[in-house]
Amino acid sequence: MPRATVSVPLPREVVGATAETPVSAEWHLTVTAFDRRHRSWPVEGRPFAQVQVDVGPGPVGRGATARRGRPSSPARSDTASVVGIWADPADGSIHVERRHSGGAPLRIAAPELCLWRPPTDNDGISVGPLVGLGVRRQWLEWGLDSLRLIDHEVRTRRGSIRLDSNWVGADPAAVVSHRRVITVGNGSFVRMAETVDVPAHFADLPRIGMRFDLPDTFDQLEWFGLGPGDSYPDRHAATRVGRWHTTVEETHVRSVMPQEFGHRHDTRWLELLDRHAAVGDPRSHTDLRITASRRFGFNVSHYGITQLTDAVHADELVPTGRTEVIVDVAHRGLGSAACGPDTHPRHLVGPGRFRWTWTLAASRR
C-alpha cells in the first residue's frame, strides 16, 4: 500500500557471514524491488527500484561508515602468482615480467601528470554559435590541453627514485610542480608517492591525475567501487558499490561529438587484464593491479584524450593501438551548463597541493 512500511529481517546466513570478516571489510546492503504481478512495465524480471545502503565496515551493525583510508586489496585466485615488477632508476619507467612476447618485459613509460579531460557539452561547445561559452574556453586559454615539460630531474636516494618535474601551459609564469618518489617492494609492487602543486592561476581544473599507456591487449578491467556504468563526483546516484568486470571498449560512450566518457568514481582497486590469457599458454596472463592511499577515479580508453579532444564527430575516432589509463585523485564534476547551472562549487577542482600514494602490482593466474 502507498506509504506503508515493512520490516524485513536479514537472513541468518548473512549476519553470520559478516561476523567472520575483518573489521576493515566493507558491507553494503542492496535492496531490489520487483513487481510480482508481472505487469508489462517494467520488463518482466527487471527491477523497478533499487537502493543500496552502506552498512559500514566490519560485521553488520558494528562501526561507522568508512569513507577514507587505505582500500582493501582485491581478492586473488589461489592459483595467482606474483610477477616481478621494478622501476628503472634512469627514467622512472616501470617494467613487468612477461612470458609471452619472447620473454621481453613489459615496459611502461613513467606515468605523466594529467590535468586535462576532453571537454563535455557541459564544459563548452567546440563548434557552432555557442563556441566560447563554458569553462572549456578558459581551459584552452590556459593551455591545459598542451602542458609543456620545462624541467625534469631524476635522482636515486636510499633505495628510492625521486622524479621532479615542472609543467607550464600558455603562461610560463604559472608553473605546476610535480614530485614522485618511487619505492619497490620486494620486486612485487611499485609504490608511487605523488605531490602536485597547482598555482592559483589555474582556478578551475578538469582533473588531477596520472596518465600512462599499456598495449591494447590489456582490454579487460575489473574493479571494486561504483558501477556498473560510469560515475562522476556529482553524478553517481544510479550506480552502486560492487565488484565489476567489463572490457575497455564497453566503457566507451559513443557520443556524436566525442567528449569525456567512462569515468569510474570512488574506486577502491582496479585490475587491468591482458587478453593473452585467451591464447597459447594461459600462464602468460598478466594482471596489473592498482590500489591507492585513498579512493580514486579512473578512465581507460583505446582512443586517448588527445584524439577525443580534437575530433568533431564520432566517425573520426580510430583506435590508437594502445590502452590509455588515467588514475585520478581529483576530477571535476560534470554539472549541467549546456542547459542549466554549471558544476556545484563542492565538485570543482581548484589550485593547491595534492598528495597521495598509489601502487602498481602484477600477478599471473
Number of strands: 18
**pLDDT averaged over residues:** 87
Helix content: under 10%
Low-confidence residue ranges: 60-75
Order of helices and strands: HEEEEEEEHEEEEEEEEEHEE
Count of DSSP H/I helices: 3
The radius of gyration computed from the alpha-carbon positions, rounded to a whole number of angstroms, is 22 Å
- Biggest beta-sheet profile: 13 strands, antiparallel
The amount of beta strand, in percent, is: 35-45%
Secondary structure category: mainly beta
Instruction: Specify the overall morphology.
Output: globular
Span between termini: 51 Å
Annotate the secondary structure layout.
Elements: H1 12-18, E1 26-33, E2 49-57, E3 81-82, E4 85-87, E5 94-96, E6 106-108, E7 112-114, H2 135-142, E8 148-157, E9 160-168, E10 175-185, E11 189-198, E12 207-215, E13 218-227, E14 240-247, E15 264-274, E16 286-301, H3 305-310, E17 322-331, E18 352-364
Antiparallel strand pairs: 1-2, 3-18, 4-5, 5-6, 7-12, 8-9, 9-10, 10-11, 11-18, 12-17, 13-14, 13-15, 15-16, 16-17, 16-18
